[in-house]
Amino acid sequence: MKHFLLTAFLLTASIGVFAQTSFHGKKITETGAIPATQLANKMGDKPQMPAKVEGTVESVCKVKGCWMKLKTADGQTMRVTFKDYGFFVPKDIEGKTVVVEGLAETTTTPVADLRHYAQDAGKSKEEIEKITQPEKALTFVADGVIVKR
Predict the structure, then answer these.
(1) How many Cβ atoms are within 10 Å of 76's Cβ, its own excluded?
(2) How would residue 30 be classed by pLDDT, with cut points 50, 70 and 90?
(3) How far apart are CA 143 and CA 28, in angstroms?
(4) In the prediction, which pLDDT does 54 show?
(5) Count of CB atoms situated within 10 Å of the CB of 48
(6) Residue 31 to residue 149: CA distance in whole angstroms
(7) What are phi and psi of 89, to 5 degrees?
(8) What residues pair up with 135 in beta bridges, in sequence order?
């Protein structure tokens, strides 16, 4: 009986480890999150809008987890940064589902910043030098992030 209980406990604990979520920044919940693929339509012509979004991580800063990109509609991505540079996310979360809460904005990112992001993402020198135009895109400044495991 002792062996059965010990085995059951270890199995339950190991399942719990794999099912864990992690929280970064402000503690948020998943309630009310919309799919990242719907955010642009919800925003319409607004330059910014408070939002809670769920999506799949396409890439993350390999230097320290200081930004990530979420997949949006039509193969596009949305850069997510973190309020006041106050927290980071794990660097190994590509393909994971996340929930972010904060402010969605339509912004123009200067060439220098785009090149910096490309460097953080581990792009080659040649790829970085090809960046010559600013980018207008949907971006997100998160107050809190949930990484689902």
Answers:
(1) 15
(2) very high
(3) 9
(4) 97
(5) 13
(6) 17
(7) -115, 160
(8) 109
